[in-house]
Design brief:
Helix 1 packs antiparallel against helix 2 and helix 3 runs antiparallel to helix 4. It is elongated and about 135 Å long. The chain has about 200 residues and is mostly helical. It is built from seven helices and no strands. It has one domain. The longest helix has about 45 residues.
Length: about 200
């Protein structure tokens, strides 16, 4: 075997491929795994938003919404929809038309969920998201009552409201009641005791 001291380009390519092949394979595998994990996280957010779209005050719903800017920060369409939703819910609810505010909140939330659905591979439209879900009336009543209860307690604790009381009766000693009755009916005279002013006997 004779080596003439020259190295051909093909030989260099073979050596390079032999050395770099495993490294590139590991890098490619890491990239595939990173993309899979990102998709799983994004799908997780979407599942929670879908599951809680009828109960927006649920802790899971709040946590999922707060994660949207982190997982979709490069997607301008989703981020813009998120910002519009957040800007709306920061508006005080005691507007001239609370129902219009609530309707707008629902529209913006469904628009955001629809855009997230497209990103993670589903094709829902806003009308479908608004119409096709199960929300028992009892859950809404319970949520409304809990909200009213919290607001009422806070008003009492802050001094903005008081607890209404309707006193029907007081506990009384039976002997005292009989004595008062005897005085009122004239069966017993009312005894008056004169108390001297302070310092006098």
């Amino acid at each position: 075997m004779h080596w003439d001291g020259s190295i051909k380009a093909g030989d260099i390519a073979i050596v390079f491929a032999t050395l770099m092949g495993p490294i590139l394979a590991v890098q490619a595998q890491s990239f595939v795994e990173w993309r899979r994990q990102r998709l799983n996280r994004r799908q997780g957010i979407f599942y929670v938003l879908m599951r809680t779209r009828a109960t927006p005050l649920a802790p899971d719903a709040v946590n999922a919404l707060n994660t949207v800017p982190l997982e979709f920060y490069k997607d301008a369409v989703i981020i813009n929809a998120y910002k519009e939703f957040i800007a709306h819910i920061k508006i005080p609810t005691d507007q001239p038309s609370p129902q219009a505010w609530a309707d707008r909140r629902v529209d913006l939330l469904m628009d955001l969920i629809q855009k997230v659905s497209v990103k993670v591979g589903y094709k829902f439209d806003v009308a479908q998201l608004k119409a096709e879900f199960y929300a028992p009336q009892g859950h809404k009543v319970l949520e409304d009552e809990q909200t009213q209860l919290r607001q009422g307690v806070l008003k009492v604790l802050s001094g903005q409201a008081s607890i209404p009381m309707d006193v029907r009766s007081f506990p009384a000693d039976a002997d005292a009641v009989a004595g008062y009755k005897a005085i009122v009916t004239g069966e017993r005279a009312l005894k008056v005791v004169q108390v001297p002013p302070d310092g006098q006997k």
